[in-house]
Amino acid sequence: MENQITKEDLRLFAQTIIGELKEILVKQNKETSLEWVKAKVARQLLSISPASLQTLRISGKLQYRKILGSYYYNRKEIENLFNK
User: Fold this and answer.
1) How far is CA 38 from each of CA 28, 31, 64, rounded to the nearest angstrom?
2) Structural domain boundaries of the chain?
3) Radius of gyration (Cα) for the chain, nearest Å?
4) Do residues 36 and 2 make contact, with C-beta atoms less than 8 angstroms apart?
């Protein structure tokens, strides 16, 4: 029975998996944080008023996500909005 798994083996395995997941999440968070910007940044990038931004959102011309009451806009959509 020399191949038994001990509690220490399981603890080390769990730590390894947690460490790898943290690395993946940090990398993913860095990538996605640049993709979505808050409404204020979107208005600054487009040089428009809050009402104009709302109009773009309602008309479906600008992709957005609403998270806990705040609107986030896709940066690539903002950059490509007037390039079409």
Assistant:
1) 18, 16, 10
2) 34-79
3) 22
4) no
**Closest C-alpha among 35, 84, 24, 20 to residue 56:** 84
> To the nearest 5 percent, what fractions of the chain are helix, strand and coil?
60, 15, 25
Cα–Cα dist 56/63, whole Å = 9
Please give the residue that has the higher pLDDT: either 53 or 82. Answer: 53
pTM: 0.56
Contact 40, 33 (CB under 8 A): no
Interval 48-72: pLDDT, tens:
999 999 999 999 989 899 999 999 9
- Are 56 and 81 within 8 A, CB to CB? yes
